[in-house]
């Protein structure tokens, strides 16, 4: 009998325990453990791989298309109208693909948040980590890592696509003062696209609906710039309308990655009005960062204060 009691006690001690050993004071939620869990959860979804695949393919596809079109135009031009090209073409084509890739990965950011609410998996997420802001921040850290690496892979593949498409073309070196453009594109493009993705996360947290979040993203990245552009055309005397469009997220991303400056744009267009109010590239980066912080903070504030249904 005593041996039976000892066996029962040993089996109980090796099983699930409660009390002091399982008290909340002894449990510590590790933030990086939450990030790892969110990364695994995101990578286990088929939609994640679709978004990653589309974004990666966009970079070499658009770069090859633009380079091929430029090559065809140069071959069709008369001999006396041949225009010179340099390696700026490579980085401009890659940066040009950032806008569409950012839109795709921005939708990915929206879905990353709204899926939690539409599938009610937010309840299990907050059960594991009841601190809402910590849980959402861990989710976004994992998301930024995925988007950053995805964009970097796309940029590197685009470089290869450019050299394949431009084989045989006569390209000059980068102009003086543009030596840092490759580093800006290679490192700035992933950072800028990740910022747009975080904006998508914020919009998803604000709307809690995939359709609403995607429509809000379309409005911010596409419709709003078009409205300002049309207003600047019809209201030519109100110069600030045209300048306001320079401080929207879509233009800020493009200006930041391309390393543009007002002086270069004015010299290209031979018009002093074109560069009025246009920020330099690093100011555009700060503007994009400001948009990201504000929208993301509003979204997280709503997540913190709203009820979970």
From TrEMBL:
Gene Ontology MF terms in the entry: ABC-type transporter activity
Bilayer-crossing regions: 49-69, 89-111, 140-164, 184-207, 214-238, 280-303
Sorted UniProt keywords: Membrane, Transmembrane, Transmembrane helix
CC per GO annotation: plasma membrane
Record's protein name: ABC-type Na efflux pump, permease component
Superkingdom, taxonomy of origin: Bacteria
């Amino acid at each position: 009998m005593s041996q039976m009691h000892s066996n029962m006690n040993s089996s109980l001690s090796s099983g699930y325990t409660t009390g002091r050993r399982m008290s909340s004071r002894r449990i510590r939620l590790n933030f990086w453990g939450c990030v790892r869990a969110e990364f695994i959860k995101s990578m286990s979804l088929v939609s994640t791989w679709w978004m990653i695949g589309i974004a990666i393919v966009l970079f070499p596809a658009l770069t090859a298309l633009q380079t091929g079109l430029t090559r065809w135009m140069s071959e069709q031009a008369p001999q006396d109208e041949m225009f010179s090209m340099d390696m700026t073409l490579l980085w401009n084509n890659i940066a040009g693909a950032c806008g569409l890739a950012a839109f795709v990965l921005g939708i990915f950011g929206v879905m990353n948040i709204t899926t939690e609410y539409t599938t009610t998996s937010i309840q299990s997420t907050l059960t594991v980590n009841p601190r809402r802001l910590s849980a959402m921040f861990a989710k976004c850290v994992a998301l930024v890592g995925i988007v950053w690496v995805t964009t970097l892979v796309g940029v590197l593949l685009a470089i290869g696509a450019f050299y394949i498409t431009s084989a045989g073309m006569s390209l000059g070196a980068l102009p003086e003062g543009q030596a840092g453009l490759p580093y800006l594109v290679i490192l700035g493009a992933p950072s800028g696209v990740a910022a747009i993705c975080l904006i998508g996360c914020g919009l998803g947290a604000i709307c809690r609906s995939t359709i609403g979040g995607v429509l809000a993203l379309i409005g911010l990245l596409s419709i709003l710039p078009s409205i300002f552009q049309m207003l600047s055309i019809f209201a030519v005397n109100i110069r600030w309308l045209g300048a306001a469009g320079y401080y929207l997220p879509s233009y800020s991303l493009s200006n930041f990655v391309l390393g543009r400056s007002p002086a270069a744009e004015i010299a290209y267009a031979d018009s002093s009005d074109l560069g009025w109010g246009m920020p330099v590239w690093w100011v555009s980066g700060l503007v994009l960062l400001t948009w990201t912080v504000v929208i993301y903070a509003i979204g997280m504030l709503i997540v913190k204060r709203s009820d979970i249904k």
